[in-house]
Amino acid sequence: MKIAYRNPWLMAAENQACCSLTIAAQRIGHELVYCRYSEEMEELAPDFVLSASSTQPKLVDIPHYGVIHEPRDCFFANRHYFNNIVTYDGYLTISETLERFLTDISVGVGRPKPVGYYYNSCQRHAASADLEKLIAARELRITYFGTNWDRRRESFFRVLSYSPGVEICGPEHAWPVLAPGSYGGATEFDGTSVQERYAKNGIGLVLLSNSHLRDDCISNRIFEITSVGAIALCCDIPWIRNNFGDSVYYFEQNLPDKALCREIAERREEIYRHPEIAMEKARRAREIFEAKFAAEILLQNAVDYHEKMSERRAAGLRSARKSYSPLISVIVRCGCRGVEFVERAISSISRQTYGKFEVVLVRHQELDLSPLLNTRYPNIEAVRVIECSGGNRSASLWAGLGAVGGQYFAVLDDDDWWFSNHFETLFRVKPASAQSRFFAFSGSIAQLATRQAKDGCAEDSRAVHSMGFTSQESWRGVVSIFASNCFVASTDLLTPDLLTDPQMETSEDSYLIASLMAQADPRFSYAATSVFDRSLADQSDFTQHPRRFEDELSLQLRMLSQRPPSFLQGDVWASLVKFWGTRPAPAVSPFAEAMLRENYGPVSSGYVAEKSAFDGASVLTDPATGGATIRPNAAPWSYAVLLSLNAPEQKYPQYQAVFEVLVHKGTIGIGVLNPDESDFLFRQTLTESPKPQSIEFPIADLDKVGRVVVQNWVAPGEADAEILSIRLLAEIS
């Protein structure tokens, strides 16, 4: 089999493991290929993917198995990491703690599955420590390998480095505190050199982070040490006790630094006092490693797991299809893009593992669709063309809704596509007959124009855009989690009122989805299987459309009589009033703008530092003028700064807030929050430019606005900008 090892890191333990696994795979008749990006995986076309880091979700339509070795803290400290593991098709671990955690997750998301037994271990090695010689000469060197990414117990390693016979290895920049002579250099990540160093020095140290220790999660060190017959000095955790017994030496890790150093030194003295016992321990530890934990053994476990999971899935689908196979109508709006985009969308429909389909092509501009109409696609029973010449997005969508013939329907625009298991996961409980009032949705993935790197970790040209409900405070917050192509619904939800075109320029998808949700209990698939393309040069930004406010107002007024989801109970009128307060000011003519400048003058500048805040690498540089360095975290929508505007000495009936900004890289958003900071009153984007740019917001009453937010925008990636000045203008008599 061809196995992809996905690892986003550079010069990390995962890179060393990849080299070892490549060697092991060749020995047992498989091929292991290394990849960092989505496009690499698609080009290599492996049978399955081992995802070595939970920082990366499943982003391609290939089975992904998460190799989970991080302690549970990681998943409760970072929502993205938790979402990432939910996207995987299966899980692999050797930790009993993590096995239960992963089993519980799989049951919780409605896709119960077994957890496989696997770890990114090292291969069997021909090298062997000459313990008899090293012990006789008292030349055992306590050896520790680490990239020291988390700077764990830095003071301990500094104290340990001053002990005789200690060698600490890893990247030079990671170990600045060591005593002269104790630094062992940066060994090559080649799958053999680390093990050979342990063999040369005869003794290795297994020390874990506090989180690993608490969750009984092991590191690769014990395998690398024992694989060459070296002696392992290990922190005392149940996993090592249960699997290696008394074949290694133990110490209590939770000791003060000097006491821990004495404890480790005493273990070495014990070895010198009883060499025969030490050599017998090392021999038995190597036997245990080679029989149970060598990469050759565990990698075959992963292959067996993939075969088991594939057959289990296939058997379930065969059984489901015999019982009932739903007919799903898919509306594809087309005309703006070439026929190759429409073909990509239709191909993704034909690859679906569950359901049968009719495709409703709604053509709103001239486009030759004959190559598609003359092609026979698996799983697709019919392809029909509905003409909507000159129609906007709303007219096109409603023309398609009026032509739906299936028991269910979905929307797939011409620049979007689905993973092959999209409907398989949406119908995770396979029905025996047509369902009524059914609405299910998936997480969505954005295809970006470029990939970016941060902190040595390779980012990707794809990113998870949404994964389930994250806001339950307003309709806008709820519908913002939906991409237009992420849902499927039963056609009985298409009431006569809903089948009437709302004649909206924007937000038509949100109106449709909100109306469907109001009639059903939405079911989330806990998978990201719908992809929308944001890599194209002519991509529309409907948030900046001049009719955006009016369309969103239409959406909310049309929903007055609908039953809101249980988590949105509240005063509908109050919600409308709150939204009305965000109504944009009318456009100002050039003449009126000139008059405004003549009569308006600065009444205050800058921000109140004590009431402001910043995050990531952002810095508040000059509160008096409003200066700030803007470097938000790479995640979508991440806040960089929250600025509390300096109020003028006296009140004025109306203000104009003026921000002068220089964007060096990426896209940022600048907005003004409402007083309780639960929503934006105004928000606008700025993109990279060599020249300063200005943004202006009208403010009627300073007491009715919150702080100013500068944030990253929708796509994950780095942004770098400066606020040069912030001014409040008012009419001066």
What are the main properties of this structure?
nine-stranded mixed β-sheet; six-stranded parallel β-sheet; 733 residues; 33 strands; 23 helices; globular; alpha/beta
Structure report:
The protein is of the alpha/beta class. The protein is 32% helix and 25% strand. The strands form 6 sheets. Strands 12, 13, 14, 15, 16, 17, 20, 21 and 22 form a 9-stranded mixed β-sheet that branches. Strands 2-1-3-4-5-6 form a 6-stranded parallel β-sheet, sandwiched between helices. Strand 10, helix 11 and strand 11 form a beta-alpha-beta unit. The radius of gyration is 30 Å and the shape is globular.
The portion of residues forming beta strands comes to 25-35%
Oligomeric state of the chains present here:
single chain
Shape: globular
Enumerate the spans where pLDDT stays under 50 for 5 or more consecutive residues: none
Share in helix? 25-40%
Number of strands: 33
Give the class from helix and strand content and strand pairing.
alpha/beta
